[in-house]
Amino acid sequence: MSERLFSFAAGDHGYWRIVRLEAVRGESLDQASRLEVLGGTQAPAAAARWVLRGFTSNERYTARRERDLLLANQPALGRPEATCAALIPIRKSAAWWERAQDERREILEERSRHIATGLRYLPAIARRLHHCRDLGEPFDFLTWFEYAPGDSPAFEELVVLLRRSEEWRYVDREIDIRLVADRHAAAQAAT
Amino acid sequence: MSERLFSFAAGDHGYWRIVRLEAVRGESLDQASRLEVLGGTQAPAAAARWVLRGFTSNERYTARRERDLLLANQPALGRPEATCAALIPIRKSAAWWERAQDERREILEERSRHIATGLRYLPAIARRLHHCRDLGEPFDFLTWFEYAPGDSPAFEELVVLLRRSEEWRYVDREIDIRLVADRHAAAQAAT
Hints:
The structure is a homodimer.
Chain A: E1 5-11, E2 16-25, E3 34-39, E4 50-55, H1 64-73, E5 84-92, H2 94-98, H3 101-111, H4 114-120, E6 126-131, E7 141-147, H5 152-163, E8 171-181, H6 183-190
Antiparallel strand pairs in A: 1-3, 1-4, 2-3, 2-8, 5-7, 5-8, 6-7
């Protein structure tokens, strides 16, 4: 599973400093000062307050024309100027998962414009979606975003638009975690 | 992950006796005499020749009307009369996974009638689909079928229809494993 699996470990170590962690809906997660993003089965550098895991996968709703636009415009993670990040774990309700594929697509895109809205913020905002419902994790999805400080207003706008959408009525737990890159912390963790 | 995860362990133990194991396309799996179907993180009773793992998940292509028909007609696993089983691990090609959601649905159902064909064999043939591509397993899907001996001709027909479909051109590895329930073997394994 190593290539597709990622872990997000919160504690006192890690390259990313947590500047805000708050529950948008449902139960929160424990506060922590740093976050480590780990690939595969890598273990956290130190005892973690919490660890969330998810895997990348094929897109579940994206149509051909949308996929072509995404592939042409989406930036890679790890751009040196993208020193701001967000980790947004969400869980969707039983009502969402009871819906069939065509109904979920209808809500997600035809009525909520999830994909179209995301496309408007490319190439400023890099994104990686991790699936975790099938792992029996407490959340269904973990989305990781990276952007430059100057694109923070654009990111806030994107988050507001998604939360206002019909799709978001099916989100029954959501945590909003904001982070900044911190080379000093990474050096500490390495010692 | 325990509720959604299942393992299929082949070796000398298990309730199911393997009556045939053959590669339909690509590399085969080692021959074995028995198969154990394990839920969650349960370990095989004895050293296994091979173990395949997968998780059940929400349907990825099924539209509302199809889902209603499935829910109304699909039988549970474990019917006492369903003493025949099949495990069919398949892997799909990179070309399949490069396709967007709408293209995959178009091939799978509009052109290959995968869901409609399966529905015609309900309630005779029980089925559970396990996903494994995201786990980094050697196959993408493991489908487990159970049926009564009298429904064997119907099952052969279903398999032939699917293999003839356009969707199956994207299957680059497939193993066909047929099994029969064997209470004696289960008793042996328990001792």
